[in-house]
Sequence to fold (286 residues):
Amino acid sequence: MHKEIDFLPEITGSFAQPAAENPTVAMVEAAYRHHGLHFRYINCEVSPANLKAAVDGAKAMGWAGFNCSIPHKVAVIKYLDGLGESAQLIGAVNTVAKRGDKWMGENTDGKGFVQALKEVIDPSGKKITLFGAGGAARAVAVELALAGASAITVVNRGEERGNEVVSLLNKNTGAKAAYHAWDKKYIIEPATDIVINATSIGLFPNIHQQPDIDFNSIKTGMVVADGIPNPLQTHLLKTAAAKGCKTVNGLQMLVNQGLLGIKYWTGIDADASVMHKALKEALHID
Ligand code: NDP
Fold:
């Protein structure tokens, strides 16, 4: 009997520079294998000068889609046919997927975070203190606002970047946003429901760095989240957990991003636990 054979997988992948430290390939390929999907995910080192050629190459080879990471998240937009709502607001794309014959840009940085947060607390109607105003913070802030957060205080060292995020939110969403300078130990307002670190402070290998926050101002009822995926328990999360706060770590955000990418490319809801395990193994996290 003729057995059906197919040596042509659907291709997905990532364009970034540097690319070697990006663990996404480990969790996405683990999910493809687990679900028996005839898909591959290829991690590619692409310089800014080669981004257009890489995107043209993906189109020419009929890729199903790809991720873009640093430094391509903004530059890739000009090679795409359209953007999802939050990618448009954020002004950056980290996931590209084909819709019919159109290449659409999405941003899953904030979506993955908000999904992880929603397992602990619904941000709708909540007051949020957000540390940071870089790419991740901007994505998280936009998704929180789109999810109905009532007030977002952006605390950032650089005033210009902080105010940019605040005016983006106030102009385009229903959330009331305000900037707060971060030039001394920050005291968190007692009315805050959710505290989020979206800075890179404490990221491996600088695991002993901690955001300049008055830890006494973190109260038991607050939910505390950290975007940093490695280490799993940052100093901020350990302090919050010791006070009895519910916490959300950055690894959950990363797994959710992978889940969203796989959904865009393959249409399936992958098993998060398989991806979580693969990611922890890849990053040597216990
Ligand atoms: P950016 O470089 O765009 O932004 C960095 C942010 O951190 C800025 O707000 C910057 O402030 C602040 N910052 C850095 N160092 C200091 C410091 N010493 N004191 C005060 N503020 C500081 O980075 P990203 O937004 O892309 O990434 C931020 C973090 O989010 C990283 O740790 C990254 O790992 C994490 N991330 C996690 C993801 C996940 O899926 N878990 C996805 C994407 C990112 P300033 O504006 O003043 O320079």
User: Anything to note?
Assistant: Residues 109, 112, 132-137, 156-158, 161, 198-201, 203, 227-229, 250, 253-254, 257 surround NDP (CB under 6 Å). DSSP finds nine helices and twelve strands in the chain. The mean pLDDT is 95.
